[in-house]
Amino acid sequence: KLPLCVENDANAAALGENLYGSGKGVRNFVYITIGTGIGGGMVVDGELFKGANGNAVEIGHTTINFQGPKCACGNTGCWEVYASGLALARFAKEGIEGGKKTVIRDIAGGGVIRAEHVFAAAKQGDEYALELVHNEGYYLGVGLANVVDAFNPDSIAFGGGLIHEWDLLSSNMIEVMNERALKANKENVKVVKAVLGSNVGVIGAAAIAWKIAE
Prior knowledge:
Elements: H1 9-20, E1 28-34, E2 38-44, E3 47-48, H2 80-83, H3 85-97, H4 104-107, H5 115-123, H6 127-151, E4 155-159, H7 166-180, H8 183-188, E5 190-193, H9 200-213
Parallel strand pairs: 1-4, 4-5
Antiparallel strand pairs: 1-2, 2-3
Helix pairs in contact: 1-9, 3-5, 3-6, 5-6, 6-7
């Protein structure tokens, strides 16, 4: 017999990062999570922007190639099928099966190839892994430009598993964003690494519950 609330994980993370992390004090704030998929949330003047039915800011399912691969959502060419952790692993697997010479498979121990194996190989100077990481940054930048132009935020923070490799991804991603986004929008936005880590969703959810309890 206690009040209950349920919230999308990316929305909760966006609120947590806005209240207590890198977005503290930011009026128009977007949080993007890059992991097995791509999710997002937006906070405007301290309130979550949720859309007509609570399903706003599903940025991972914006189209960046209308003739691209099929996404789990049913669409084709979603940002998620190009720039998520699963996408990076898929590209690596396809290249290896096509005869690319790389240590990625050795690092994976002959098991399932994951994004972390690609980054580990890149850090060893593996040429194919470096190419994959470069492409990952490019795809992230393409989608990021869409976010910048669609929402015109003051700040965008990136979280999720792939952001552990921020130093490998961010410069190329931001360069591509600057090439593609509207001049006025890109000059206004700050793109940063989120600071609350894996606890960000829990922190945001707690803030929502606390607000209800007041």
